[in-house]
Amino acid sequence: MSFEIFISQFFGGLSVAMLLFLVASGLTLIFGVAKVFNFAHGSFYMIGAYFSYQAIALFDNFWIGAVAAALGAGLVGMLLEICFIRRIAGREEEGAFQILLTYAFILILDDAVKFIWGPAYKTISKPESLAGSMDFGAVTIPTYNLFIIVLGLVIVVSAWYVLSRTKTGKIILAASTDTQMVGMLGVNVSLVMSLVFGVATAMGGLAGAMAAPLRTIAPGTGVEVIIDSLIVVVIGGLGNFWGALFAALLIGEVNAFGILWMPQWASLLSFAVMIVVLIFKPKGLFSREKGRKKI
Amino acid sequence: MKRKTVSLATALLLCLTSAVSFAAETIKIGALYPMSGRGGLYGQDSEAAIKIALAEVNAKGLPGGRKLEAIVTDDQSKPALAVTLAKRYITEDKVKFLYGVVSSGAALAVTEVSKEYKTIFVGSDHAATDLTANAFQKYYFRVSNNTYQSMAAGAMYMQETKMGGKIAYIGPDYAYGRDQIAELKYSLGKLGVKYEMVGEFWPKLYEPDYTSYITAIIKAKPDVLVSGFWGGDTVAFIKQAKAYGLFDKMKYFHPDGGGNYEVFSTLGAECPEGLIMSARHHNNWPDTKENKDFVQKFHKATGRYPSYAAEGAYAGILVIAEAIRKVGNADDTEALIKAMEGMKIKLPEDPAGFTSYIDPKTHQMAQAQAIGVTVKNDKFPPAKYALGNMKVYAADKIMPTQEYIDILTKSKKK
Fold first, then answer.
1. Global pTM?
2. Which of A157, B41, B88, B131 could link A119 by a cystine bridge, Cβ 3.0 to 4.6 Å?
3. Which residue of A109, A259, A260, A265 is the best one to mutate when testing the B interface, meaning the one whose CB has the most B CBs within 10 A?
4. pLDDT digit string, tens, across residues A7-43
5. What is the DSSP string of B244-311?
6. CA nearest to B294, candidates B310, B278, B317
7. pLDDT under 50 in chain B at which residues?
8. Domains defined along chain B, listed by start
């Protein structure tokens, strides 16, 4: 394999990985902090894409679309947390309720977008400044894909900064370890939960807006991204932010080179990686616990 | 006085019963379409087209003054659900015809119900060749093309335009994607077209990101990329591939569903020029009165132009009405089958001088297939492109051969 092909395939995989990370990071954050398994997380990706489509139709500006997507999805996310998810927190049968409730969100949001925007596919154009492609010797990389990679890195660095260098970040990390204790220390835990939910769903919405120029949006799009995000979250360790980053990169690159070397089996590869990880590290790569305890 | 009251009551009762019996006289069609999710567009377009066709055939009148009526239910493209709904249609709603279905998987399940309950099933959309070949049963009819017809026409186009050399294929990893390339290879072999396969790529259906496939295809350096995508997947692939300059490096050939209107309406000005594609129905071709009327009626009813699915849904209702007219009622199923076998019917997608007909042996509608290239055309907004420079392939030249049906039967039995 020549160096050009390696680079071309590597950067392709990287841009796929970054979009995957944007969705999966929100999913894992909600699980880590609020202990909620948000099955509907992909639906926030979908409504983000629709919000951005609508804002662009109104203002003809891609960046306003991106802001609208993040704000809109984040607000809907917070609203659903305050009105519904909070009500089932702490119940004995909470786990089953979470699945039912968030699954209901998928159906409701799917029908809501169909009602508002119709069943036809939607897509948006790339902003003009990012529409071209860049040539690096024999390797062509679309500018927009490079932008996605850079955006992903910016989000990774900002998340690192917030989580490890700010008080808010420390509260979030503490809440993910022991919610009760944080509450006893005088922190408004339910506010923290709502904010985390809002930020995580906003990231999902932003991912939708960023993906929309490359993909198509339709009612049901959310379910298409949730499976891959789930794989990423499971490999990285449920609730582990850095695990999600590592797993997204792993899946993106394994797929990129799998498609090159064994295209017949490419769609199985993510599952194969997940199975291998689950055998040796049942709680994910970045969990502290070791594999099954020996009896 | 008393008598008068009684007779009044009797008259009233008579009126009521006649109204009831009149209502009972409608002939019911039980239609199954996806109304939600990715396939929802096709279900909604099909429902709109069914309404247009019903208005036409009911206005023209049916034997005994009866009316045709269609019930449409969301089958979510799930075989198990489609089977449950089909059975309910037959046993509870007493439908005379099963109708529609977008997913070939669901259709293969529904055709079994049709066989078991001896109820005619008119397929309006799904494309798996199996239904009119190895999975054929006499109560099934299909009024739209199957993939074999598209790929046979595609092979003829390749021969005619001397397209060959190195070929790569990309299509969704399920029956629809797998069948298309197998059928193209078979037809190319029959025509003696020389080619070399340099890669086959199988993303899953609704794969959101094709970036890694695109770079791998460019690396394989084919002369022609044959594509078997469907609907929104076509749009996503084209958008992503365009940024990599894929369309400058090879010919893009998509003979079954590439030229669907919803691809053009979604891509708008972003559609590349010179892609070679086809579809089961085109809004801008043929330039016949039937097609123009159909497209305009659809636009008037819905405010949008139809996707390919609408024309199939429209055609099937015309076929059913014509069969009932021939037989004189909708109760004699065997006579209806006889009436539909070999039926000739003028449809919107028929070019001038050609009339679609139902092959009596396989119950597959024989239709001409037109393949063209993308050119600027803003007559059907929001699309900015459509197919032009059409090459037309005669219906009888592209029907599945008995030899191919035998091959299918043998291979699927394993």
1. 0.90
2. B41
3. A259
4. 989 999 999 999 999 999 999 989 888 888 899 999 9
5. TTHHHHSEEEETTTTT-HHHHHHHGGGPPTT-EEE-S--SS-S--HHHHHHHHHHHHHHSSPPPHHHH
6. B310
7. 1-2, 4-6, 8, 12-24
8. 10-145+287-366 (3.40.50.2300), 148-279+369-413 (3.40.50.2300)
